[in-house]
Amino acid sequence: MPACAQDVLLTQFYEAHHDWLQGWLRQRLGCGHDAADLSQDTFIQVVAARNVEQIAEPRAFLVTLAKRVMFNFWRRRDIERAYLEELALLPAECMPSEEDRALVLEALQQIDAILGGLKPRVREVFLLSQLHELGYKEIGERLGMPVITVRRYMTQALRACWLAAGTQ
Fold it and tell me: What's the pTM?
């Protein structure tokens, strides 16, 4: 399909479903501003998919995308809240600048996305190693798995981190 025709379909799709989706999101979020933002984020994913003509059930499709967008929104909000709670414990002279806070939040969200892509056991091994500073033998004992499995899981986790760093 020519790009011009695709643009027309996208515009029609947006106009036909935007108000409905924003209302659906507003009911779930209780905030019109967040609903407007997440509605736009959802439609950005529709544009990226570029297959509007193949969508048989537009509202079901939009709800699926919007749920993913909401989940990511809540995760980002939870990460930000936890970070700000930890900052509140610091003395005033140790507070990072607004720019540094924004950079740390962005890094935390990237780490969360990487860890979220790992299998639960791989993530658990990685976190025990990195946050609790446990050795492979200790992790294996704690989780009831051989050290070779711990090594394999750490390799998977570190590879995911390395690949994510390479795409930045």
Answer: 0.67
